[in-house]
User: What shape does this take?
Amino acid sequence: MYAVLKICSKHAQCPKCKHVSSRQHSQYARKVDDLPVSGHSVHITVLLHKWFCGNKDCKIKVFTERLNWLSPSARKTNRLENLIRHVGFTNNCLAAEKICRKMRISISHDAILYRIKKEEPVKPRECPFRGH
Ligand SMILES: [Zn+2]
Assistant: This one.
């Protein structure tokens, strides 16, 4: 399934200095994957804006719009990333790749392993299996 999502924000916040800008620079497209629907993979073309930062003291002159459901420069939505990490943590990476493929999520076992290695380890005090 393919979809185009146009973000029509009237303003955006600079990620560096938090200045709210209403001056658009340009528009660009990002292709991202989302959770599968009814056994079909979902590909979304997100049309976003770049904005001028109006703060003269800010080193960033142009910034890209941030979305709470899509990390900067990510190619998968946050909820799809969470599902992949969950499948990766509850299986070995080869099995996780097969499960993802069965769910129509295109990802290699190496990419799943990369995500697991990148994850912060659970601190001992927060571990549910300690202290009982
Ligand atoms: Zn700024």
Q: What stands out?
A: The two ends are 48 Å apart (CA to CA). Strands lie at 2-6, 12-13, 20-21, 24-37, 40-52, 62-64. The longest strand covers residues 24-37.
